[in-house]
Specification:
- This protein is α/β, with parallel strands linked by helices.
- It is built from 17 helices and twelve strands.
- The strands form two sheets. It has a six-stranded parallel β-sheet with strand order 2-1-3-4-5-6, covered by helices on one side. The chain has a six-stranded parallel β-sheet with strand order 9-8-7-10-11-12, with helices on both faces.
- α14 (357-374) runs antiparallel to α17 (412-418).
- It starts with 6 loop residues before the first helix and ends with a helix.
- The protein binds uridine-5'-diphosphate.
- Residues 40-41, 44, 192, 220-222, 250-252, 283, 286, 306-308, 311 line the site of uridine-5'-diphosphate.
């Protein structure tokens, strides 16, 4: 989608300001490095972000590193340990991790003006390059309480970067590079978010045999222990004592997440007429479900930042989110959704929302406005441009936290929407 089209959501002024800021970066070469083309938030964001950067005449590539199953098994355990799980740091898996990165470094010729490395999979790439250009590490993971032994190992690589981006100020770590806080964002023009008519939604739901006779409660997530699919099913079962509804769990596989299949299979025994578990990669299904659902859950136990939360909020659907990580910055409890710390609390909120049409409508409206003001891709794009511009000669970053500050402030206009109308 052409960059100017975003004006309908964020206004002409924002579009002009971003154009102006991008001018010094015209023809600069940027590359984003990550580990999968689909499945998960990083790919969801890089697809449109890399296009928009090119629209602004910044020559931007997005490349994927290749790896074998041993590599992805280790990097998934690294992901889990960054979120606090135990990890065995044996020599062989560490060697595989570093060796696969050395091989990708040979193949990739990363002599761009800026290199942005996403998440831990490609983190060691930097070891293979003389540092004459700014390299930025963007960590999307929940850093509330990383496993310290792992973190010590990763710092060998992290400390070589010129800047590190994390999602929220709570994730700040004791590391050498300056740290920036970029909350993720969604693309209103993506297949997941474009408007869909009611008939189209009906057809998509029918294709997956999702009944629409009762209200839908949904969670869209990779099948991952941190997304707490068992907690979602348990909360729904408790809510079923008071309300009639259908629960749908949808999760797509991701090539860099080898645990998904087993977690999906472990849930199948809990399927029933009113509890559906779907393992499919289909953005239109996600879109239809987030639109039609009366309530969306994202009952995560750890969450760097939940794109699925922002996606559902954008569609005016109230979200019940786990009171963890980035979700606490997306949902203001009782204003544009609910934050919950247990399955019983989640169950209570499901019942409350399903019984109160007015509450759902107000919260949904406040939720959409929150996303319009804070969580659309143009804001993230502007933060990247500010950061790239702030590198003075070679690689000294000049700190400029204006947008970060604005993101942290409460939004009186959203709160006004959420108040019951007289
Ligand atoms: N997603 C999808 N299909 C699925 C599950 C997830 O397309 O079955 C998308 C979802 O719409 C969102 C992204 O994958 O855009 C997940 O991002 P999020 O930040 O919520 O979680 P992550 O997977 O990065 O932990």
């Amino acid at each position: 989608m052409a960059f100017e089209e975003y004006a309908q959501f964020v206004g002409e002024e924002t579009i002009e300001r971003i154009w102006k800021k991008a001018r010094p970066l015209h023809d600069r070469e940027v590359v984003h490095m990550s580990s999968t083309y689909y499945g998960g938030g990083v790919a969801t964001m890089l697809a449109p972000l890399s296009i928009l950067m090119n629209n602004l005449e910044i020559k931007t590539e997005w490349r994927i590193i290749q790896g074998n199953p041993d590599f992805f098994a280790f990097t998934k355990s690294v992901h889990n340990a960054i979120q606090g799980a135990e990890i065995e740091l044996l020599e062989h898996p560490k060697w595989v991790y570093e060796q696969v990165n050395r091989e990708n470094a040979v193949r990739n010729h990363l002599h761009h003006d800026f290199v942005v490395v996403h998440d831990p999979q490609p983190l060691p790439l930097i070891e293979s390059y003389p540092q004459s250009r700014p390299w930025i590490w963007r960590c999307h993971i929940d850093l509330t309480s990383p496993n310290m032994a792992l973190w010590k190992y990763l710092r060998r690589f992290i400390d070589q970067y010129q800047a590190v981006i994390v999602s929220i100020p709570d994730y700040e770590q004791d590391i050498h590079p300056p740290q920036f806080f970029f909350m993720p964002a969604i693309d209103p023009f993506s297949m997941t978010n474009v408007p869909l008519g009611e008939e189209h939604i009906d057809a998509i739901l029918a294709k997956y045999n999702i009944p629409t006779d009762l209200p839908l409660v949904a969670q869209v997530s990779r099948f991952d222990r941190w997304k707490d699919p068992n907690g979602v099913i348990e909360a729904f079962r408790i809510a079923q004592r008071d309300v009639d509804a259908t629960l749908v769990l949808v999760g797509a596989p991701a090539t860099d997440d080898p645990e998904g299949q087993a977690i999906y299979e472990s849930l199948l025994s809990q399927q029933s007429e009113r509890i559906l578990i779907i393992h499919q990669e289909n953005s239109l299904l996600v879109n239809a479900l987030q639109r039609r659902a009366a309530v969306v859950l994202q009952k995560s136990l750890r969450e760097g930042f939940g794109l699925t939360v922002a996606e559902a909020m954008w569609k005016g659907t109230p979200v019940i989110g786990g009171k963890v990580g980035g979700i606490r910055y997306q949902i203001r409890d009782g204003i544009n959704g609910y934050l919950v710390a247990s399955t019983t609390e989640a169950a209570g909120r499901i019942v409350q929302l399903l019984k109160d049409d007015g509450l759902r409508a107000r919260m949904g409206e406040a939720a959409r406005e929150t996303v319009r003001r804070k969580f659309l891709l143009t804001r993230l794009l502007e933060q990247y441009i500010d950061l790239l511009n702030s590198f003075e000669v070679h690689f000294h970053v000049r700190e400029n936290h204006q947008i970060e500050q604005a993101m942290l402030e409460p939004d009186p206009e959203v709160e006004a929407i959420a108040r019951p109308h007289k």
